[in-house]
Design brief:
Elements lengths: L8 H9 L5 H19 L2 E4 L3 H13 L11 E5 L26 H8 L3 E6 L33 H8 L5 E5 L6 H7 L2 E4 L20 E5 L2 H11 L17 H10 L7 E5 L9 H16 L3 E5 L7 H16 L19 H12 L2 H14 L5 H22 L4 E5 L15 H5 L6 H6 L3 E8 L6 E7 L5 H19 L8 H4 L7
Parallel strand pairs: 2-3, 2-4, 7-8, 7-9
Antiparallel strand pairs: 1-3, 4-6, 5-6, 5-10, 9-11, 10-11
InterPro entries: Amidase (IPR000120), Amidase_CS (IPR020556), Amidase_dom (IPR023631), AS_sf (IPR036928), GatA (IPR004412)
Subunit structure: Heterotrimer of A, B and C subunits.
Catalytic activity: L-glutamyl-tRNA(Gln) + L-glutamine + ATP + H2O = L-glutaminyl-tRNA(Gln) + L-glutamate + ADP + phosphate + H(+)
Length: 507
Amino acid sequence: MTDLTRISAAALADKLAAREVSSVEATQAHLDRIAAVDGDVHAFLHVSDHALDIAADIDRRRAAGEALGALAGVPLAIKDVLVTTDMPSTSGSKILEGYMSPYDATVVARSRAAGLVPLGKTNMDEFAMGSSTEFSAYGPTRNPWDLDRIPGGSGGGSAAAVAAFEAPLALGSDTGGSIRQPAHVTGTVGIKPTYGGVSRYGAIALASSLDQVGPVTRNVLDAGLLHDVIGGYDAHDATSISEKWPSFADAAREGARGDVLKGLKVGVIKEFADAGFQTGVSASFRAALTTMQAQGAEIVEISAPHFEYAVAAYYLILPAEASSNLAKFDSVRFGMRVDVPGGTVEDVMAATRDAGFGPEVKRRIILGTYALSAGYYDAYYGSAQKVRTLIQQDFDAAFASVDVIATPSAPTTAFRIGEKIDDPLQMYLNDLTTIPANLAGIPGISIPSGLAEEDGLPVGIQFLAPARQDARLYRVGAALEATLVDSWGGPLLDRAPELLAREGGVL
């Protein structure tokens, strides 16, 4: 009998549509998988009490002949940064412990309307501040490839859930790489859409000019199917793009079967040549480029001279916006409250924020408040925004001569839990290659490119495209994926040692 947790979302959707299996069966299989392995992985903060009821309703509607969406009945994991009415929404923070939202995030509402079955809420770095999911107030998530290693961040829970076959699909958010970097270290696929292409309404804000919601999956087609569900204009989001988008699933199918790579101009950034990437990461990246060349792609060296300032600019812009966005968690309007007998409102606010926020959140609030303070605004925040404009201009110049830009998705494979937690700079540098896309608002995709030779851990290759050209990434990503998977003899995740170490793939 087919293991319903191991097949793709697209294959599962086909079985559901053909009524070969029921949504209840598919959902139960994933709930059983969560029960079996999540004690080790800790991908989920909350597992839904309503998943089987929702699945049963989908089965009833299908049996009645109702027209359903392409993914109807397929289970879905949801990053805890996205608010939900029927499950707590904590953003990985004690200050929101137990918070129940009165409304669903737009992407959650669209997923429900399309018939997807929410399995639960996934773990994350507190308020999406981190690259390892070690900064969750509820404990770290572990990488299914090696339980002593991080699953990336901030969306490590979503990536680990997909990699551990606890969910075929997941929703994440990407402010500086929080979808793509976890995809890199877990052997999954992650998409950061064009800014404004997917609604941020109901995503607990970190940095409003950088945040973007997107899919986390095991292959490019599944990502396209989920992107088709969650994308498009939303009047609740003032930054939402109103133009009509093409089908990203169709773009992925086109890439998998066509000669998409023939004649494609792929830009490689010369400034990243000396960026100190791990040997296995660089080797996998070069091998992927060689594969693309064999398929007819042209590799073009390009210059992005201001990318070296991207991390510094980002870590001024993000903390400044975070400082503003998190001001509402003050014991009066939102979040927990620590009473101070005889104290003033300010005393209660200070005690609440001290107890409710973790060390990384406090660090960034302090940085951001300082960058926005009188006398420093122009020198820090203002200068960072100027650098942002220069990075956008670098992208404009590059895309005048190439179709996509390729980089390693992150500088290293998954590091060990605790290895970098006391070194903020080294933690921040994990987003070296992903941050520029957020600063420019352009789309990016990370797909698995192989295993690093020195540690056998997954490596991803990132492709970037001009704004609104997300479909191009799906075509290119699916084309390379098809070639690589064929050369590997099957999906990369089938080779995960922790997943295969025990009978039946149970941790």
